[in-house]
Write a structure and sequence with these properties.
12 strands, 162 residues, 4-stranded mixed β-sheet, single chain
């Protein structure tokens, strides 16, 4: 995992860690730290975990990738702020490859292809509707979900609705 920080003007590499390694880095109050996959180049779009440093922050603990991803989902998922901006995770529980679309009132706009037992995060807004199809059968919607302020992690099964 890599540790990065950034400002509006630049991205800063802080450390690279292997399993069970530790790193101590200098930070300032309010600085955001991003834990990303190796060779991410500082892109925090797929960050495992992000934290904003506070005046009582003593340390940050890293876990294995799966645990870090679960922490990121728990802390980063949902709708925050007055603008209705949301980070919603869609989890494929069907056993088949899915295609996830934003419903634009027409044929939809592809957002992601999700492998079985995998998931994707969508950056969206309250009120947006998404639908899923099986790959190769895009004309048949198997699932729909309209984002609400409570949307966080959405499991997609073969049932219509949610």
């Amino acid at each position: 995992v890599e540790l990065w920080s950034d400002t509006a003007e630049a991205v800063f590499f802080k450390a690279s860690l292997k399993d069970r390694e530790k790193a101590t880095v200098k930070t300032v109050i309010g600085e955001k730290m991003y834990f990303t996959p190796t060779n991410s180049g500082g892109s925090h779009e797929r960050a495992y975990y992000a934290i904003e440093m506070s005046d009582n922050q003593e340390k940050v603990t890293l876990f294995d990738r799966e645990t870090m991803e679960e922490l990121q989902k728990a802390q980063g998922a949902g709708c925050k702020g007055p603008d209705g901006r949301c980070h919603v995770y869609f989890a494929n529980k069907t056993g088949k490859k899915l295609r996830l679309f934003w419903d634009n009132g027409k044929q939809g706009i592809l957002q992601a292809t999700i492998r079985p037992r995998d998931e994707t995060v969508v950056h969206t807004f309250v009120g947006h509707t998404f639908f899923a199809t099986f790959e190769g059968k895009e004309e048949e919607r198997i699932f729909t979900h309209t984002v609400s302020k409570d949307s966080k992690i959405v499991s997609i099964s073969q049932e219509i609705g949610s």
